[in-house]
Amino acid sequence: MLIRISLRSPSGQSRLEIDDEAPLRDLVSLIREKSGLDKFSLKTGYPPKSLDISEPAQNVPIRELSLKGETIVVAPTDTQPAPPPAESQPAPKPFAPKAVEPDETAISWPERGGYLVLRVMPDDNSCMFTAFGGAIGLENPSRKLRDQVADYILSHPDQYNAAILGEPPLRYTNRMRQMDTWGGAIELSILSDIYNLEISSIDVKTLRIDRFGENKTNRVIIVYSGIHYDRIAFTMDPSHPVEVDETRWPVEDAEVLERACELARRLQQMHYYTDTTDFVLKCEKPGCNWIGQGAKEASKHEKETGHTQFGELQIT
Predict the structure, then answer these.
(1) Are 262 and 142 in contact (CB under 8 A)?
(2) In terms of Cα–Cα distance, which of 301, 97, 86, 119 is closest to 205?
(3) What's the 3-state SS for 10-37?
(4) Contact yes or no for 252/267 (Cβ under 8 A)
(5) For residue 46, which of 275, 263, 267, 248 has the smallest C-alpha distance?
(6) DSSP state letter for 61
């Protein structure tokens, strides 16, 4: 019987069809042909587990490996040597959260054979939705997630009323459906319920972890830098495409949170955050001369006028 298997490798995603009576060696040969790699390791399942492709194991029939419908991640094993220890490298230069993924910011995690990395989101007012949506494998997620959040609010009027939202639910959801409206804690809490995932958000300035969603089995991790969200991911090599990232972990995996906080501490030292308590914003809507202090005043101006474009005013 033919079975289908999804393949994720540095060269992209593809689908394979193979007879489940065939030996594993036939699948390995097919993966070698599809990926263009000669030496590699394979992982499958969730959480990902290594698939034994040693010579003796390759005689096992594929049907005994329960691979039907699974996704196999292919990682090269003959890549460039690991970078030198951090102490021998120059200090990273400060940067602003305006780049697009993938970004090279990473910390080595040799115990798991790879790196924990910061995937930097576009600075387009949808960074929170993009950060979470990418973690669950959605392409161009902002539109879909905004609509899901808005529909959830309107279908839970007792839970999300004007007192919670700060304005009538219909007005709030109409704003949230607009692509230039920022998402925040309310949206993260709702997305946690919709996708049954804990969302752990690490504040770069304080290193505080805000957890959205209780009693979940798995979590994703995002980083909040004052007015911007990015995503935490694990990769076996920072040069691999983001499609092969690992972005979900069991909630019992405390070590990944510790490593994520280590990365956030590095970002803190680089001053990779905006202090929203005292920064000065200006409205960039043509003809509007509003200037205010902090995110709360900006949010108030947005609700009163519908203006959503703000820039930080540099005081010299």
Answers:
(1) no
(2) 97
(3) CCEEEEEEEECCCEHHHHHHHHHHHHCC
(4) no
(5) 248
(6) B
d(CA 264, CA 274): 14
pLDDT digit string, tens, across residues 1-47: 888 887 776 666 677 888 989 999 999 998 888 888 888 888 876 55
H or E element at residue 118: strand 114-119
Share in percent of the chain as helix, strand, coil (round to 5): 35, 25, 40
Nearest alpha carbon to residue 170 among 180, 160, 185: 160
Active-site residues, by number, are: 124, 127, 228, 307
Beta bridge partners of 304: none
| Position 89 confidence tier, pLDDT thresholds 50, 70, 90 | very low
d(CA 147, CA 232): 24
Tell if the pTM clears 0.90, that is, is over it.
no
Q: How far apart are CA 140 and CA 10, in angstroms?
A: 20
Preceding omega of 169 cis (within 30 degrees of 0): no
